[in-house]
Amino acid sequence: MMVPYHVTMIPTFAMIAKLGGVDTYWGLIVPTLANAQAVFLMRQFIQGLPDELFEAARLDGCNEWQIFYRIVLPLLKPILATLGVFVFLWHWNDFLWPLIIGQSTDMRTLTVGIASLQQQNVPLNVVLSGSVIAFVPIFAAYLVGQRYFTEGVTASGIKG
């Protein structure tokens, strides 16, 4: 099983704090770049490819890197688009890590900013309009990658 995100959060914060990354953009972005789900999805997809593709490429004289770049990578486009949508949504909706790492108001992400509006005496229509504004980029990203996203979900075997 994969390790839950919350288990690794305290050691990650301690490491980022020692490196001077608290309240910086690189401290916000770099720790979340590696994603076990992405590796798992790509591995599952590549394992499902028929061995005949690789054998035919080897007979044509391709080495392992050429097989990857000429055969596997073009077939990975739907999975990469799906992962792009997943990772974008995960980073866009992430609340806890930006709340911990960004200690000044300049480093607040949109989700943390909307949550802080609810703690103050702000009218509900302002909070709701902020939520709608936060939804628009997510919806636009989905519309752009919708075709690849549905192909990637069906090809990788994700059940939803």
Description:
By secondary structure, this protein is mainly alpha-helical. The chain has one domain: MetI-like (MetI-like fold, Orthogonal Bundle). The chain has ten helices and no strands. α8 runs antiparallel to α9. The protein is elongated. The two termini are 19 Å apart. 11% of the residues are buried. The model has no long low-confidence stretch (mean pLDDT 86). Pfam families: BPD_transp_1.
Give a quick rundown of the structure.
By secondary structure, the chain is mainly α. Helices cover 73% and strands 0% of the residues.
**What is the helical fraction, as a range of percent?**
over 70%
Largest sheet: none
Report the CATH architecture: Orthogonal Bundle
Total count of strands: 0
CATH class term: Mainly Alpha
CATH superfamily: MetI-like
Measured between the Cα atoms of the first and last residue, the distance is 19 Å
Estimate the mean pLDDT confidence: 86
What do we call the CATH topology? MetI-like fold
Low-confidence stretches: none
Outline, from the CA principal axes? elongated
Q: Number of folding domains?
A: 1
Radius of gyration: 20 Å
Q: Topology of this structure?
A:
Blueprint: H1 5-18, H2 25-29, H3 36-47, H4 51-59, H5 64-75, H6 77-93, H7 96-101, H8 110-119, H9 124-144, H10 146-156
Helix pairs in contact: 6-10, 8-9
